[in-house]
Design brief:
Blueprint lengths: L2 H27 L9 H7 L6 E8 L5 E2 L4 E7 L4 E7 L11 E8 L5 E8 L8 H10 L12 H5 L6
């Protein structure tokens, strides 16, 4: 084998090993590359207690209970399943019942969700596209077709409604 052939074989072998490593990493991360899970997704996938994830959906009307100035609990729903969320901290100004929310934290053994971060939608016409898609998929969506699209998609770059 000549020096040129050995170098080519070494490069091909190195690329094959690198490709296999990248493939294994992507395969193992494929289930966790999700912006959030809806309550129905959590029930379907059988996600267990202690697993860290993001929970997304709508805050169920009449479910918000404030225990003191920073402790609050509320229910997140996708109109199929619901999960009770407990949060200790200051809620975003835009947090309201009936609005889209994404909570980061982990599932508790009793089936509730202990959140350490709560994110709310940014204006009255926006819902995270993933929440809108989950609602449409379940057949519970009754909004307009532009709902969930950023303003730049609806009105053009630099435009405001």
């Amino acid at each position: 084998m000549t020096r040129k052939q050995r170098r080519a074989a070494f490069i091909v072998l190195g690329l094959a090993i690198l490709g296999a490593a990248v493939g294994l990493v992507l395969y193992n991360l494929s289930s966790s590359i999700v912006f959030f899970y809806s309550p129905s997704d959590i029930a379907e996938k059988g996600i267990g207690p202690g697993e860290r994830l993001r929970l997304g959906g709508l805050v169920e009307k009449g479910s918000v209970v404030k225990k003191d100035s920073t402790d609050v609990s509320f229910t997140v729903t996708d109109f199929g399943d619901s999960i009770r969320v407990h949060y200790s901290g200051i809620l975003p100004d835009l947090f309201r019942e009936g609005q889209g929310v994404v909570a980061e934290g982990e599932l508790e053994p009793d089936g509730s969700f202990k959140a350490d971060t709560v994110l709310a939608k940014h204006d009255e016409k926006y819902m995270p596209p993933e929440v809108a898609a989950a609602l449409k998929k379940r057949g519970d969506w009754q909004g307009d077709e532009d709902f969930g699209k950023p303003h730049t998609e609806k009105y053009g770059e630099g435009s405001y409604p």
